[in-house]
């Protein structure tokens, strides 16, 4: 990949209204990021809006800032882009990393849980992380308070990956400044956000998909119902990864999420040996390191106004599955994807989890 193509790909993902799905579709259709950037304004105009692309100088400044911080970029298609994450729907086209990238190529296990975790749960998470490290696994977590912090503390000596919902130069929570520095120095620190980005509520579910995507399995140690840790577990399950949970007292609200996961089929975990048995050996079919596979079907170009109107008529404010839209309109998937892409670039369409879309 040339340096110009690397710059263009970063410009493409930094452009307004272009996310991981539309990035893949644009790359599938145009082949190079440069061609995609040139096509964005015309595609957005067809969708009834005005398309914009990221300024090259702003992206070059971002790259310089990242390098000054000792960080580097991993782009989808790079040989060392994490191969398990590459399988994840909506995987980030660009990561900013600091530390030992080779850790992501080893057998990884995510440990997540409550921020307001009990002392017993924190101790268990720390011990579990130590046991996994001794077994040769790398522990992935989110550098949050509670279980995440304990998981990193227990594995930083053997290998840990911290995924953050902010810029590589931002610390959150503030009390984890020393731990975050240690992870970046002795482990691997990962983000998809440019330097200086502050942690916003909407960034955390996106961070959780990276945590789940990096790991062969996710262990939830302690979690209340509807917590972010359960989002990570759900994403792991949807990606075909193992979902594991540590049981707790039914009298403790912080254990209800884990107990519910076990009722729904998650593997009950009592020690590191249980985890290693559950994740087993890595299926060779999941390894396609260094290969850029844009899963989206290349979008077509010839859409009549009648076809466009028929597709838009099936959309509304409530999220609808894309495959259902395709079934109902009876048009070729490439035509439907083209119209959805045009609407998204025009700012008229939102994408949701589970391949669903809605009109703004």
TrEMBL record:
<dbReference type="InterPro" id="IPR003488">
    <property type="entry name" value="DprA"/>
</dbReference>
<dbReference type="InterPro" id="IPR036388">
    <property type="entry name" value="WH-like_DNA-bd_sf"/>
</dbReference>
<protein>
    <submittedName>
        <fullName>DNA protecting protein DprA</fullName>
    </submittedName>
</protein>
<feature type="domain" description="DprA winged helix">
    <location>
        <begin position="298"/>
        <end position="354"/>
    </location>
</feature>
<dbReference type="GO" id="GO:0009294">
    <property type="term" value="P:DNA-mediated transformation"/>
</dbReference>
<dbReference type="Pfam" id="PF21102">
    <property type="entry name" value="DprA_N"/>
</dbReference>
<feature type="domain" description="Smf/DprA SLOG">
    <location>
        <begin position="73"/>
        <end position="279"/>
    </location>
</feature>
<dbReference type="InterPro" id="IPR057666">
    <property type="entry name" value="DrpA_SLOG"/>
</dbReference>
<dbReference type="InterPro" id="IPR041614">
    <property type="entry name" value="DprA_WH"/>
</dbReference>
<dbReference type="Pfam" id="PF17782">
    <property type="entry name" value="WHD_DprA"/>
</dbReference>
<dbReference type="Pfam" id="PF02481">
    <property type="entry name" value="DNA_processg_A"/>
</dbReference>
<comment type="similarity">
    <text>Belongs to the DprA/Smf family.</text>
</comment>
